[in-house]
Amino acid sequence: MRQDVSGLVKKLDVEKVSRLLDIPLHRITGALKRKTLQYVRGKPELFRFDKPVSHVDGGTAVFIEPFDVVRGFPKISRTLMLYPAVSRHFSSCRKVAVEEKMNGYNARVALIGDEILGLTRGGFVCPYTTEKARDLIAKDFFLDHPDLVLCGEMVGPDSPYVPKSFYDIESLEFFAFDVREKITGKPMPVMERRALMGEYGIKSVRLFGEFDVIEAHIEITRIIKELGSAMHEGVVIKDPEMSVPPVKYTSSQSNCADLRYAFELYNDFGRDFFFGRVCREAFQSVEWGEDEETLGERCLQLGESILLPMIKTIKKKKAGERIAENVQIRVKSLDTVTEFQEYLRLLGVDAVFEEPQKMGIEYLVRIKRINHSTNDKTEAILGGQMWS
Ligand code: ATP
Ligand code: MG
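A: This is the predicted complex of the input protein with adenosine-5'-triphosphate.
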């Protein structure tokens, strides 16, 4: 869908954006027309890149008043075969740093004007993430480093975007895994970043160590097996200098946990979601040279993770229940609840908020997200409609 951009061009200093992000002017106006670069109304108003444009990542946010840019968080490639991929991808490095990949949601926290804001991966300012960021991160950091953005994972049970948490976290915590320049997106070397976080009392994701590239796969295999048995997700392997882009690798247990969750809502997920996860299991099994018994166990885990949740959904629907996803948030201010509700409406998410429950100085709000596609499809098939 194309839109008339003359009003938007007035709002956004396109020449400045073109210069700062090094994108030709016509590509910016083209992106505005195609809504790849979208205007987002709200407090504060901004433009966000819905998809990458030229070399600029999707999720990049351009603020209008005051003018500022927070670059999107880049996609991280995934390896399915540790040894060949790590040695090839990091061939120009002597060592790699291995950090835990935590399973929460990606948040970027930055100072815009004199306000700390929390952005989601897509480049929206999320009112909930913003309240949490202000609570969890000392403003000192931004006063000393206004040109930096903190990238990290928001992890814990009080997460509106991730329904289950396997960490020993009471509410929601922020774990930094990257510090970047706001405007260029240039990342800081791993150890320098971790030391800087330490100085300001900001938590970092766990570091397993720095390993020689040629034998990193041995250490990582051991780490992954250990993480998997604790239901943790996996690792991100990084060039200590952050010149070569990072690579992710995950445990079979977390892969199956994703599948169990997604198959309950089977029609609300893209088919790629499922296919990629089956491939991961196959390559991991081959790389680890599994014997028949271990392979049998893997097959059983994978099969159960696919079928059991889907059967549960069908039975639920058959019993007349509605398929929904339960999440919760915990806030200090009830205004955040209202703002978050408006924010989800803006995103087109159908969510039902329960009455806030007072818990000390905070409020717990349970939220039901309705998965229409799975509800409708299951009901239709139960009613005799053809699959296709
Ligand atoms: P991508 O867009 O990179 O493919 P995705 O949305 O499919 O990502 P994931 O598979 O979870 O997400 O992998 C990338 C995400 O992992 C990052 O966006 C980040 O939020 C998260 N993450 C957790 N721990 C780390 C870490 N230590 N280093 C970098 N990213 C991490
Ligand atoms: Mg993730």
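The pocket of adenosine-5'-triphosphate (ligand 1) is lined by residues 73, 75-76, 99-102, 106, 153, 177, 205, 236, 248 (CB under 6 Å). The two ends are 28 Å apart (CA to CA).
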